Amino acid sequence: MRVFLRYVGDPGFQIGIGDGIGVHQSTVSRTVTNVITRIVQKSNIWIRFPTSCEDLHNAKNKWQEKFNFPSTIGAIDCTDIPIMKPFIHADE
Fold this sequence. Notes:
Distance between the termini: 50 Å
Strand content: under 5%
Number of strands: 0
Largest sheet: none
Helix content: 55-70%
Structural class: mainly alpha
Oligomer: single chain
Radius of gyration: 20 Å
């Protein structure tokens, strides 16, 4: 798990990650592949998307009421990343 978390936390070359932890690059490759495969197999249990307009509306209301976070239906890792609207020149 340490290999996988190191890889997803700071992705880089597998050789560098392996050297930093003390394992071969092939071990890093197999570990990352195996853990991702297991996560994908269980993703339908852990990840739920609204399936109807009513579910979508309810999810948005829940996030607004609970976290004061409008127009949201979920979060990946609870990290807020502001996305700025691009500046468009009037002559474009």
